Amino acid sequence: MLLSLFFTFLKIGFVSFGGGYSMIPVIEYEIKEHGWLTAQQFTDIIAVAGMSPGPIATNIAVFVGYKVGGPLGAVTSLVAISMPSLLIVFIICLFFNKVKNQQFVHSAFYGLRPVITGLVTYAAIKVAIQNQIITSFSNFHFDTIGVLFIVIGFLLLVLTKISPVSIILLSGVFGIIIYY
Amino acid sequence: MTNKKALIKLWLIFFTFFKISPISFGGGYAMIPLLEKAVTKKNRWVKKEDISDVLVVAQTVPGSIAVNTATFVGYQVAGIPGALAATLGIITPTFVIILIFATLFLNFQHNPIIQAAFVGIRPAIVALILYAAYKIGLTAMIDKLTTIIALISLMLFLFLPVHPIIILIFGGVTGVLLSFRRSVHKTKTYSHSKGSSVTGD
C-alpha cells in the first residue's frame, strides 16, 4: 500500500508542470486504477486541498495518502511528490548558467503550455461530470443550480480580485442556504 | 565553530521559508512578493536582478513554484544541505495544516450542514479549475498553432482512454518538435498538419 502510494506520487511529481490543477486528472486516473476513493470523495479532497495553504497537488497527495494509509501514508505521499522537483532543481543548479534563457526551454514550453491548457480544461469537465453537474455528452443534461455556481464563480474569478479561497467559502455558505 | 555557524545558517534558511509557507494559498503565486523580499532584502541571499531568473526556472521545473524557489535559493546559499533545509521549511507548515484540515473534514463530512456546503463547493471547484485553465490558456494560446494544439489535446484527453501522462508527454514532445520546425521553416500550416498526425498516433 505505502509502496504503491510512493510510486504513484513519485511518477506524478515528475510531470507536475503548470501548477497543481493540471495534475488533477492524472491523480484521479491513478486513484481510479487503485480503487482508493470514489469520484465525489476526490472532488471534496480537491476542495479541502484548495482551502489550505500550500501547493494544491502536494495537498491533494497528502490528503489522499492520509485517507488511504493514515499518517504514514500522508508522509509517504509528501516525500514522493516532492522528491522529483527537488532532484531536478539540484540538477539544474549544477548546470544553471547553461540552462537559463535557452531556446530549448522556450520551445519546450511553447508546445507544452497548450497541452497543459487542454489537460486543465479536461480536468474541469471531468469533475463536473463526476459530480453530476453535467452528464456525459451523449444524452446531455445539466444541473441548473450547479452550472449557475460554475458560471458565477468563474466570472467572479476572472472579473474581480476575489481569491480562490473566498470563492470556496462563499459557495459553501450558499450551498448551506440552498441545500440545507 | 564553523560547524556551529553552518548550523545557524541552515536554521535561518529553514525558518525563513517556514514563516512564509502558511501564506502560500493557491499554489504559491500570492507569496512570491514576500519570498522575493525575504531572499533579496532581509537576507541578501539572491541579488535583486537575479531573482526573476530564479522564478523562471522555478516555474519551468515540475512542482510548485514556491517549493522550487525555496529549494533553489537554499541551494545557492548553502548547497545541498541548504536546499533540504529550505524545502523542509516551506513544506512542513502546509503539511501540518492540510493534515489538520483533512482530519476535520473526515470527522465532519457526514454532518448535514457540511454536506450541504460541499454540494455548493463542488461546482465552485469546477469554476476554480476552469479559471486555472483560462489563466494558463492566456499565456499558452498565443497563436493559431498553439490554439489548435490545445484543442486537439483536450479532445485526446476526453476521448482517448489512456493514461493522461502519456498524452502529456506525447503532446509536449510534439509541441517541441513543432516549435523547432516553426523556427526553421516559419510555415505554420505545414507544421500543424504534421503535428496533429503525430499526436493522434
From TrEMBL, chain A:
It holds the Pfam family Chromate_transp. Keywords: Cell membrane, Membrane, Transmembrane, Transmembrane helix. Its main location: membrane. It is found in: Cell membrane. GO terms for molecular function: chromate transmembrane transporter activity. PANTHER family: CHROMATE TRANSPORT PROTEIN-RELATED (PTHR43663), CHROMATE TRANSPORTER (PTHR43663:SF1). It comes from the Bacteria. This is Chromate transporter. Signal peptide: none annotated. The lineage of its organism: Bacteria, Bacillati, Bacillota, Bacilli, Bacillales. Belongs to the chromate ion transporter (CHR) (TC 2.A.51) family.
UniProtKB/TrEMBL annotation, chain B:
The chain crosses the membrane at residues 12-34, 54-77, 83-106, 113-133, 145-178. It is a multi-pass membrane protein. GO terms for molecular function: chromate transmembrane transporter activity. The keyword Transmembrane applies. It holds the Pfam family Chromate_transp. One of its GO terms (cellular component) is plasma membrane. The keyword Cell inner membrane does not apply. This is Chromate transporter. The lineage of its organism: Bacteria, Bacillati, Bacillota, Bacilli, Bacillales.
